[in-house]
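Lecture notes, part 5. Sequence design as translation. It can be helpful to think of inverse folding as translation between two languages: the language of shapes and the language of residues. The source text, in structure tokens, appears below.
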């Protein structure tokens, strides 16, 4: 089945339900939304000769037209290649070429920059603000989406990749359907009165959450700023009510800080799904305190989009549960649609409580990487997706993430998981953000170095941080050096770039302040 069927059905059943919004302004109802998508679907074939199975790229920030294009491309039976708007045009050009996209939708100035980077290799490019795009949307629409099999590709997502070239994750219509059903079963319900708010990039997993809202004929709201502005979000929530949004942990932290400062309590926000990076215990406790029981967590990756584990609202908010804290520090239990295993390097099982690589299999897992059999064979082994994340399961099936396998530090033969050290550092009241890496050491193999962003107006002393760590974690895990920085280097999705942190140390080894011996 083609996921665009859900739009066609919602338009038939609920033609007058409000659909797309720019801020508070309604742009169209479900009938109008399906008409636009059907028009783009028809126009793609008629005007650009796009055929089912072709790839169509989108290089744009968040805008309501993004949703028209997503469903328009699906109506035509083609696959969407979403490109993060924060990528450099040269990086975007690599993706367009690798995917062999036959058409690009883009907003300006991104489109011109991309066209220049592609030169004569540039396929036809449609500017989302142009009269040409409006005409495409007004093409006599397809009534129904082109038929698709569950295994046909719908979403070719290039991994954010903190090293090397990005890989194209092939996500099928069947994968997306599994993701949506699992969301309803394990994460949260969605009602027609809800409003999906796109504060995170639509080009990432957050954009895929449009599907459950289309299925329920709920509203889709793109903030006028096109991005993440806490004041705008609070104002929209109060006016529109029933807000549902995905937020990376850094966004949650900013929302909470803004709420604390302005006295906002999150009124009008029904659900904030957080994930995509580590949420530290103190931060989520503070978030629930300031904004209330509105939070659920998911753990997923492009290769199994939004669908590995979930920690539902009750588990996040139920302070009376005897293991509330442990559970809050976890990423929850396996979503119903997937199997989860913790494995050693050879794929052998790990016991409860033991750390190993997280393996997943099930209906949402990708078929492989686009035209990359080598990377596919590495990631999909023995029928399982090897996530590259390390973690452990407790007796009840709650998964605690440690780190990416490549970020684990081995010092004196002992494994040190940076996350544990970061959690400890964040308990220090002068520490705002922390990231821990291992650097080569002639005696120990590797030694632990901590990068610390201080709270405004604070300058924590290395000796003080060292005392603090000794009070919270095993002696051998504590950092040997501290480096105070104004900010941590992050990729376009807000993930800390540990490779850059290591490179900073290579450049200026002697600048790190040693902790007391
Ligand atoms: P991406 O493929 O860009 O979505 O990145 C996926 C990676 O983000 C995962 O493999 C994890 O390392 C990390 N991640 C995703 N969700 C969580 C979460 N809830 N907690 C901690 N890390 C997460």
């Amino acid at each position: 089945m083609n996921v665009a069927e859900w739009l066609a059905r919602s338009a038939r059943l609920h033609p007058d339900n409000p659909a797309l919004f720019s801020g508070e302004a309604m742009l169209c109802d479900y009938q109008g939304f399906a008409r636009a998508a059907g028009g783009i679907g028809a126009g793609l074939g008629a005007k650009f000769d796009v055929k089912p199975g072709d790839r169509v790229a989108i290089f744009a920030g968040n805008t309501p037209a993004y949703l028209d294009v997503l469903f328009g491309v699906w109506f035509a039976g083609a696959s969407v290649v979403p490109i993060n708007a924060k990528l450099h045009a040269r990086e975007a050009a690599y993706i367009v070429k690798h995917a062999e996209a036959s058409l690009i939708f883009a907003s300006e100035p991104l489109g011109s920059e991309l066209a220049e980077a592609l030169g004569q290799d540039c396929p036809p490019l449609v500017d989302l603000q142009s009269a040409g795009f409006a005409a495409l949307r007004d093409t006599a629409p397809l009534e129904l989406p082109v038929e698709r099999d569950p295994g046909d590709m719908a979403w070719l997502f290039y991994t954010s990749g903190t090293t090397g070239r990005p890989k194209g994750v092939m996500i099928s219509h069947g994968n997306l359907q599994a993701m949506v059903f699992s969301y309803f079963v394990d994460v949260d319900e969605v009602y027609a009165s809800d409003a999906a708010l796109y504060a995170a990039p639509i080009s990432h997993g957050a954009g895929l959450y449009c599907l459950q809202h289309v299925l329920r004929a709920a509203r889709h709201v793109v903030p006028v700023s096109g991005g993440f502005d806490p004041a705008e979000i609070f104002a929209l929530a109060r006016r529109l009510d029933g807000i549902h949004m995905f937020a990376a942990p850094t966004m949650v932290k900013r929302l909470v800080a803004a709420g604390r400062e302005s006295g906002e309590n999150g009124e009008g926000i029904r659900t904030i799904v957080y994930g995509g990076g580590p949420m530290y215990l103190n931060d989520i406790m503070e978030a629930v305190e300031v904004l209330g029981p509105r939070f659920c967590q998911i753990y997923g990756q492009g290769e199994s989009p939004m669908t590995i584990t979930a920690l539902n609202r009750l588990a996040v908010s139920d302070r009376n549960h005897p293991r509330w804290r442990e559970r809050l520090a976890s990423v929850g239990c396996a979503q119903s649609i997937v199997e989860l295993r913790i494995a050693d390097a050879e794929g052998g099982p790990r016991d409860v409580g033991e750390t190993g690589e997280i393996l997943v299999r099930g209906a949402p897992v990708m078929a492989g990487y686009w035209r990359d059999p080598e990377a596919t064979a590495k990631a999909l082994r023995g029928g399982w997706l090897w996530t590259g994340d390390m973690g452990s399961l407790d007796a009840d099936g709650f998964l605690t993430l440690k780190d990416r396998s490549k970020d684990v530090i081995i010092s004196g033969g002992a494994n040190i998981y940076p996350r544990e050290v970061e959690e400890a550092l964040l308990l220090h009241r002068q520490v705002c953000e922390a990231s821990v890496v291992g650097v080569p050491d002639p005696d120990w193999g590797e030694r632990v170095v901590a990068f610390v962003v201080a709270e405004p107006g604070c300058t924590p002393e290395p000796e003080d941080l060292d005392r603090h760590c000794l009070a919270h974690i095993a002696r051998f895990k504590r950092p040997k050096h501290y480096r105070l920085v104004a900010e941590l280097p992050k990729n376009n999705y807000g993930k800390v770039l540990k490779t850059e942190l290591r490179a900073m140390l290579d450049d200026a080894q002697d600048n790190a302040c040693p902790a007391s011996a």
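The translated text above is only one of many valid answers, since several sequences can fold into similar shapes. The mean pLDDT is 93.
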